[in-house]
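Tokens as discussed.
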């Protein structure tokens, strides 16, 4: 006796699975708005509203997002942390950024302060998102990074490097265990 075939998740929709998949893939893979996806589908003659694309994204989006995330290269184990002053509406803020050795941006955070609390927030956010500590962390010798490290006291597989991003003045710090 044959078992019945599994029902397609796209069954019952007006558009074929290929159209739905393409729309959801475009929306999650590239920084496109729902209306941009609607326009891109209209180019080959597929008339679909942005609201329909939104509903498809809600129903099928998590699977596509997971698949795309799995294909992305994993972050390296050497993190470069830096901050830069920016003005937003005339008020000075700090843009904190973490990049791995391959140039992949790990995280970006905008804060109104440049202190231990802000550095700690960036590190906590990074550790939560990356699910592992870096082997090496390179900073611009801002004391806030060191203070945040000692407060968090996360364990590393190797040594921590704190110094300029040129690599001339790197000094291994003592290894801490959690």
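Sequence:
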């Amino acid at each position: 006796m044959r078992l019945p075939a599994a029902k397609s998740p796209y069954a019952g929709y007006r558009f074929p699975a290929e159209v739905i998949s393409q729309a959801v893939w475009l929306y999650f893979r590239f920084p496109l708005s729902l209306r941009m996806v609607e326009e891109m589908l209209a180019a080959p003659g597929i008339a679909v509203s942005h609201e329909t694309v939104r509903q498809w994204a809600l129903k099928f989006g998590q699977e596509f997002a997971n698949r795309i995330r799995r294909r992305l290269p994993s972050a390296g184990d050497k993190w470069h942390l830096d901050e830069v002053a920016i003005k937003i509406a005339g008020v000075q803020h700090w843009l904190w950024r973490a990049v791995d050795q391959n140039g992949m941006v790990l995280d970006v955070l905008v804060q109104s302060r440049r202190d231990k609390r802000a550095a700690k927030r960036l590190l906590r956010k990074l550790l939560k998102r990356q699910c592992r500590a870096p082997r090496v962390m390179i900073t611009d010798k801002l004391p806030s990074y060191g203070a945040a490290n000692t407060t968090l006291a996360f364990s590393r597989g190797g040594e921590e490097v704190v110094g300029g991003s040129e690599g001339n003045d790197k000094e291994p710090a003592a290894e801490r265990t959690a």
